[in-house]
Amino acid sequence: xxLLTFDExxxxxxxxxxxxxxxxxxxxxxxxxxxxxxxxFAVGLFGSSTGAAAALMAAARxxxxxxxxVSRGGRxxxxxxxxxxxxxxxxxxxGGNDFGVIELNQDAFARLREPRAIEIVPGASHLFSxxxxxxxxxxxxxxxxxxxxxxxxPGAGSKAG
Length: 161
Hints:
There is one protein chain. The protein is of the alpha/beta class. It is built from six helices and four strands. It has helices at about 5-10, 20-30, 35-40, 50-60, 100-110, 135-150, and strands at about 45-50, 65-70, 90-95, 115-120. Helix 4 links the parallel strand 1 (about 45-50) and strand 2 (about 65-70). Helix 2 (about 20-30) crosses helix 4 (about 50-60). The radius of gyration is 15 Å and the shape is globular.
């Protein structure tokens, strides 16, 4: 889902407004939780670049409601201190040629709780536009989500405020 409206996208600064992006994710999870059937399932968050920082920040706020996170070429540094509050299993998928971002992810990775993992896609750039690169991201993300997303206990619902 797009986290910004069409008008908001026109202002490039909004792409880096991690608080706004995280609030949109919180709203989306709250909307899902209005349906009793959906509220039984753990939520997986997948974010790219600044969207990954928003996913980490939202997961820190939603605590046990988030079952897993996948960051693709993410900027976890933009999540600030929220990284220390994330308790969901988190996978960072980084392009092997995404110099600078690799180091930012490694620094954030050191602050995360287990389970956590880093997958580096050899030869891939920040946007994973190289042939086969996005397919590798998809494979890593699918395996991560399959491993960690399980239904919540009946009546567990969201504890998000």
